[in-house]
Amino acid sequence: MVEWMTSLTLSPMTTHEVEELIARTAREFAAEQVAAGNWPEESAAELGRAETARILPQGGDTPGMSILNAFDGNVRVGYVWLNLEPRISSTGEAWIYDIEVSADLRGRGYGRLLLEAAEDEARRAGATYLGLNVFGANTVARSLYETSGYEVKTMQMRKAL
User: Fold this and answer.
1) How far is it, in rounded angstroms, from Cα 76 to Cα 101?
2) CATH topology of domain 9-147
3) pLDDT for 112-132, tens place per residue?
4) pTM here?
5) In the chain, what are the domain boundaries?
6) How many CA atoms are closer than 13 Å to the CA of 105, on its beta-carbon side?
């Protein structure tokens, strides 16, 4: 980690930024599902848009959702998309739908700082747990989550026949 970094500031994305993120997320999620062998390529784009619309029926104004830019001083270093309404009210779990550090700033400790900022945001909202999904092939993210104290709770496995 670079010594001058101590914390990040989170602030809501603008409507335009959220719209761009929604479109990009639908495309990227579809591509990840195809790569994982979960969706056929010919229908993946539509499935990605439908899934994103299901999760964000009111876009950035969907209740419980918090889509935030992360800043180090005045430099935007990434973003996080949180569901701050507990997924299962009895467990108090909030959820990270997406978290990303800008490509040109990766490898400098921002991922860990952004994850910590997301955890702080979830705590402030009253969550007692914070969950997320990560694709198995994303070894960099998996390492970050594991070294940050996240534990595997479920695991899907598959074998090609």
Assistant:
1) 9
2) Aminopeptidase (3.40.630)
3) 999 999 999 999 999 999 999
4) 0.85
5) 9-147
6) 19
